[in-house]
Give the backbone structure.
Amino acid sequence: MNQKKSTLFSSIRSKDDKFEVVVGKPVNAMVNLFFNFNVFAYKEFCSILEQLPYLTLHHKQEYDDGTSGMAIELTEDNSLLRFVEDLPDLVYLYVENVEPSSTTHQGLGSK
């Protein structure tokens, strides 16, 4: 539990508490994101993340238990603050109120 606390920057939940995004502490401008859902089933959400001007998506991962993760690079000053402020609205608009698709998103970060 101490290890999780030391690597956690923020945890953001949807209004209905169904969806959670855990934002790790940045290390050399890199931040790990962990989702308690398969983020790639929400194509528009993934596309929006890829288009944010203050970050670059470097890696994505789907896990067997239906969760997922991403590694992002912060590309501008105050990027992390902007991202954490924008994320609740993005989750609300593109995840919480959208039906998931059955296909996996294959965007810019799928290397």
In short: Residues 79-96 form the longest helix (18 residues). The chain is about 30% helix and 30% strand.
